[in-house]
Specification:
Length: 238
């Protein structure tokens, strides 16, 4: 599979057109960022870990009947994906209180949230990803009320599948973000699910197993990413 025209380059991934209409090549780069791009580095091997974990978890979700952007894994850092009309909304599902959620609301770090909390944020670094509600989303023309309900429903299904898989591995899924796009009249899960987009804790000692290690200088980022990738994929990558 050869890349053709550059379609989009984000903070950690690049999309290229392919010879087939409706299909794109997604490249996972070694770039890592935090704090709305205020902190940046290149970590060799990071793209490989996130590509492998995303391919594995999207495959897991597909087997559970949740449609994703993934068509197949091409090589160590490239996925073949469906070309989606992405909706600029981050859907965040929270099982535990952590991070900005604790700073904004009177919860303690680690509090269990029952039922899980589902948030909508505008995907816009220049505005620091402000929170959305249904009225604002519709007023901005980002999505319909029906699409918002469907996105929330799918995100909660994703949460159940991921939480169960990770719990078996001794990993707590504290929270995660997902993104959606339109494909031939259907909403599909897109972008990625990786250590960059999930907040993961070791179930025994609650050590961070995700990008918080980079954000807050908690240790060797790539050692953590490789270890978590091996755990999540049962040793097939990392």
């Amino acid at each position: 599979m050869s890349a053709d025209e550059l379609i989009y380059s984000g903070k950690a991934k690049t999309l290229y057109s392919t010879a087939r209409e409706g299909e794109l090549l997604m490249e996972f780069r070694d770039d890592i960022t935090a704090f709305d791009g205020g902190k940046k580095d290149i970590l060799p091997g990071k793209g490989y870990c996130n590509c492998c974990v995303t391919a594995f978890l999207f495959g897991l979700l597909e087997r559970e009947g949740i449609r994703t952007q993934l068509i197949g894994k091409i090589d160590a850092t490239h996925l073949l994906v469906r070309s989606l009309q992405m909706i600029p909304i981050e859907v965040i599902v929270r099982n535990r209180a952590a991070g900005s959620f604790v700073r904004r609301y009177p919860f303690r770090e680690g509090d269990t949230l029952k039922p899980p909390v589902c948030e909508l944020n505008l995907k816009d670094d220049s505005r620091h990803d402000p929170m959305l509600n249904e009225d604002i989303t519709v007023a901005l023309g980002l999505a319909t009320k029906l699409e918002l309900r469907e996105m929330r429903s799918i995100a909660l299904r994703v949460n159940r599948v991921l939480s169960a898989h990770l719990e078996r591995l001794g990993i707590v899924l504290a929270d995660f973000k997902c993104e959606f796009g339109r494909f031939r009249g259907e909403l599909l899960l897109g972008d990625e699910i990786s250590m960059d987009s999930m907040r993961l804790w070791d179930a025994l000692d609650r050590k961070s197993l995700d990008k918080d290690v980079y954000r807050y200088a908690k240790g060797d980022v790539m050692e953590v990413y490789r270890s978590v990738a091996r755990r999540i994929t049962s040793g097939s990558c990392g």
